[in-house]
């Protein structure tokens, strides 16, 4: 049983890490953060990086943990959520695959109106939302949280535990990318950034297709089981 729980936690960890990291993408967000905090001291940037990472963790955790209950309240079935979330993942991945390094991010428009004087007040908005994690990442987090559920409560808890560890790791990566963004970008260069985005986008596309397939399979099984229930009735 212990081995099964460890495997469930490991699967939850890897699944969330592979799914959420390309969406949140600290390496791609770091240049926007640096631009929006231009002129701020190193201490201010360090404080902001820590606050943004913490805000991201709690925002994504809340989406994963209570998102499914919100869906139950509105009567949305899990297969439909998987299909919708998978299509969203695939759509984001397709845009990332087709993007060019010179294409401006839509979130960069917020950078023009940002000044260092507003740094502390705007640690959550807009630096955390929607710069670091926007509506797309929140929707994906809800979908991922639903996918981690299992009929056995113990396995669900193990998967969620692994998912929270993955979010904590992403939070650390986000902090490091923002705190040492200048050194990071100088290290990998423009070519390395482009390669990184393409690889993560391809992984994201594959995960989106897999989630859609899981949802379609469940819907097909439900449709095929309808005659059996009618006969039994």
Automatic annotation (TrEMBL):
It comes from the Bacteria. It holds the Pfam family MarC. InterPro entries: Multi_antbiot-R_MarC. It is found in: Cell membrane. It is a multi-pass membrane protein. The chain crosses the membrane at residues 12-34, 55-74, 124-148, 160-178, 190-213. Keywords: Cell membrane, Membrane, Transmembrane, Transmembrane helix. The keyword Transmembrane helix applies. Its main location: membrane. PANTHER family: UPF0056 MEMBRANE PROTEIN YHCE. Belongs to the UPF0056 (MarC) family. NCBIfam families: NAAT family transporter. This is UPF0056 membrane protein. It comes from Massilia varians. The lineage of its organism: Bacteria, Pseudomonadati, Pseudomonadota, Betaproteobacteria, Burkholderiales.
């Amino acid at each position: 049983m212990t081995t099964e729980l460890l495997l469930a936690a490991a699967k939850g960890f890897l699944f969330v890490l592979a799914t959420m990291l390309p969406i949140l993408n600290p390496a791609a967000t770091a240049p926007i953060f640096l631009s929006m905090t231009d002129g701020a001291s190193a201490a201010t940037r360090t404080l902001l990086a820590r606050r943004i990472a913490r805000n991201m963790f709690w925002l994504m955790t809340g989406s994963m943990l209570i998102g499914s209950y919100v869906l139950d309240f509105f009567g949305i079935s899990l297969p439909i959520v998987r299909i919708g979330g998978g299509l969203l993942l695939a759509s984001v991945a397709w845009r990332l695959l087709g993007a060019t390094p010179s294409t401006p991010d839509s979130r960069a428009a917020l950078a023009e109106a940002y000044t260092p004087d507003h740094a502390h007040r705007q640690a959550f908005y807009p630096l955390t939302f929607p710069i670091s994690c926007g509506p797309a990442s929140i929707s994906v987090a809800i979908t991922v949280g639903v996918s981690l559920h299992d009929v056995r409560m113990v396995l669900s808890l193990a998967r969620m535990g692994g998912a929270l560890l993955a979010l904590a790791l992403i939070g650390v990566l986000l902090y490091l990318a923002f705190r040492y963004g200048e050194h990071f970008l100088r290290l990998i260069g423009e070519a390395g950034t482009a390669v990184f985005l393409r690889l993560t986008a391809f992984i994201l596309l594959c995960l989106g297709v897999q989630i859609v397939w899981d949802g379609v399979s469940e819907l097909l099984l439900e449709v095929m089981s309808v005659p059996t229930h009618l006969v039994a009735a």
